[in-house]
Specification:
The chain starts with a strand and ends with a helix. It has one domain: Rossmann fold (3-Layer(aba) Sandwich). β9, α3 and β10 form a beta-alpha-beta unit. A 6-stranded mixed β-sheet has the order 8-7-6-9-10-11, sandwiched between helices. Strands 2-3-4 form a 3-stranded antiparallel β-sheet, with no helix packed on it. The chain has a two-stranded antiparallel sheet with strand order 1-13. It is globular. The protein is an alpha/beta fold and 191 residues long.
Length: 191
């Protein structure tokens, strides 16, 4: 089996070192949900099954960067050949900062009701709100959703808690290591 592991090392009581970045121990993410390539593909296919019942779509708009791979899978599963991107930046590693629109659609003038917007997840809803304001008639779908962002999307497959960091396969490395059972991690925390 292949496991994805996000390495974390404790340095001091209130600091954690992750991949070269120091973070405060009181950060907003307390859990990590690891997604493998296989799971992502299956979740995207489940999203396609749910969306196919909505209406026929002629365009897929992928939210770059996280929505690009789900958008490609959705385009294949729904046989949609017209694809565009909106490029939005708001994250630096695990911190969400100011939202910035880096690239808009080439031709936003067509019938938006035939557009399907795809992103990997909706977290706080900042990105989704920006996109929703620009394309109010398009159908917005994400693979994963958190409670704060859920009101901004029409369709999603899996909900995770707000304090969970989703570790996507493009952000992880393969490791063949022993994985500690969840119960053991809780026992060590309580000591």
């Amino acid at each position: 089996m292949i496991y994805y592991e996000f390495q974390t090392f404790e340095l001091r009581q209130n600091q954690i070192y992750e991949r070269g970045i120091f973070m405060s121990g009181s950060e907003r993410y307390h859990k990590t949900y690891r997604v493998s390539w296989g799971q992502l593909h299956q979740d995207c296919k489940a999203l396609a099954w749910r969306i196919i019942e909505e209406r026929p779509f002629e365009w897929i708009i992928g939210i770059a960067r996280g929505g690009l791979i789900p958008a490609a899978i959705m385009a294949r599963e729904l046989n949609i050949h017209r694809i565009d991107t909106i490029c939005v930046s708001s994250y630096t590693i695990r911190d969400q900062g100011e939202i910035s629109l880096l690239k808009d659609l080439n031709d936003p003038g067509e019938d938006q009701s035939k557009w399907l917007i795809i992103d990997d997840l909706v977290d706080t809803g900042k990105t989704a709100k920006l996109i929703r304001n620009r394309l109010p008639k398009a159908h917005f779908a994400t693979v994963y959703a958190k409670p704060e962002g859920r009101p901004f999307v029409d369709t999603f497959i899996t909900e995770v808690s707000q304090d969970t960091w989703i570790l996507f396969p493009w952000d992880a490395e393969y490791q063949y290591d022993y994985v500690t059972p969840i119960i053991d991690t809780r026992i060590h925390k309580n000591r």
